[in-house]
Give the backbone structure.
Amino acid sequence: MRAAHLVILPILIPLAGATVGLLLWRWRRWQAIASALALLLSLVSAGLLLVSAWRQGPLVFQLGGWPAPFGISMVGDLTAATFVVMAQVVLMTGLIYALGCRDRCVSYPVFYPLFLMLTASLTGTFLTGDIFNLFVFAELMVIAATVLTALADDRSGVEAAYKYFYISLLASIVWLSAVGSLYASYGTLNMADLARRLAADPSPPLVPAALVLMTVFFMIKAAVVPFHFWQPDFHAAAPTAVSAMLSSVVVKLGVYGFLRMTTLLFQPQAELLRGWLLAFGLLGVFFGGLTALGTHNLKRMLAYSTLSQIGFILVGIGWGTPPALAAALVLTVNHSLVKAALLMLAGAMASRAAVKSAAFAHLTGLGKGAPFLGALFLLGGMALAGIPPMNGFVGKLVLFRSGVLAEAYPSLAAVGVAGILTLLYVTRAFQIVWWEPAPAGAKTKTGGDRLLAPALLIALSLWLGLWAEPLLALADAVSASLLTPSAYIAAVFGP
Amino acid sequence: MIDLLRALTIGVMFGIGLFQLLRRNVIRSAIGLMVLTNAINLFLLMTGAYRGSVAAYVNLSGQRSDALPQALVLTAIVIGMAGFVFLLAMLYVLTLRYRTADADDIADLKH
């Protein structure tokens, strides 16, 4: 086995695990064990990929042995490897949550195979170096996520899944037109080759169209504010284990896309794109924060909060300086861990309510029966709002520092004000569920979804808050590697 | 001439698709999405529409068409078809459950 095989292992192992899982559909217990093992194994290979990408630079695997611009290249550079490890850590906890949850849908024979398909395809979108291949992986991801949502115990699951699928198909069309525009202009689909040609000659008339279409695609994927409308609806209905994944790591595909677009694909237009991202990010920060304050459902509140946190990340990418990119990466990792944990906690709380629902009306005061859950939620909320000793504080700190270094004072002030909104809505939720007196006759059910998975995530974010150096060093290395696209291009084309 | 015809076809399909997409009836909007998908597929195919006279094999000489967009479109058609079938299946469940095809009435999640 060559080192380059590490690039495809995190995709192949979950894919193989899904196949094995389907063959084991009669033996549910073995299916669950096999799926967890496959995901663990794939996480290990992703970790190895990250280590080796950090030590030796980008690893490239040419599918079918075709040389770079002709075949499909899978590129495991530091950025992609970081996103893959982040995604697979969170997906692993999602699987642990599913193993210990009371939802009926996790006992369906297709649940775990679909979950692994989601893992494989999300990993694929990060690792691919070919824009058409990205479309294929994105479509695979959407189909897996849609079926997982439609399976929900909640009767509105199909409605939520339909909305998500419809918007995602529309997004795929947008991406395909961008692919067509770029292929008509440059005759290549390889990202490294495109970057090289586009930097040399950005004049073909279809290039601005491709820029806008790609931006729209990633904005739909990341639920950036004017394109967010599908996202909150769908969180109230999806099974907790699934909605926690979709709101934390799957939306990060958009963030990854913007990082690639500003630093690799559209280098001549990067300034323009950064301006858009800054504007949309600031809009999202306020819109998400204010709407999260006004919701009456805990899961919906967390969904709106995602819009605002994605806004913070986009502001970081929009500033575009090396420390700002590093800050965006730190925020991305933090948000994935914390949002997954908080959604799981919301789902666990709902599973303890008399009516299984995350609406505040059903949850008021119920937290008194679940003090450990409350402690975890408090820590998670502190992380989201950026209060030490949690990792959220480190994220906010590096973001503000990069803003000062970039001398972007107006947007920095706006971000600071919006940060207070986060504190407000988290406090409000905590107050309603854990402080207010429970209405007479309201009872907490004993037992409910297990808390191991959110506890793991909260412990991880506490650890990253107390000992932040490794993540910060990684973020600096990623931002340095993002800003030297020539290394990426050289790695793809080989010696 | 043939290029103009193709461009017009794509434009008309795109227009029909977009118009149906914006209708309130969910079945119509699903069909609109499919028409739009096929307009884009045609656009993808056109990006490589050189006038080739021989098949795109390595060992044949002569003017060849670009084979890549054809492969892309084949993949896109298959994925689009699978997606559309799945969309229709969900639409069937939805219309049975809500007893309506009006997008405004399929809104349990808003409450």
About this structure: Chain A has 21 helices and two strands. Chain A touches chain B through 33 residues (CB under 8 Å). The mean pLDDT of chain A is 91.
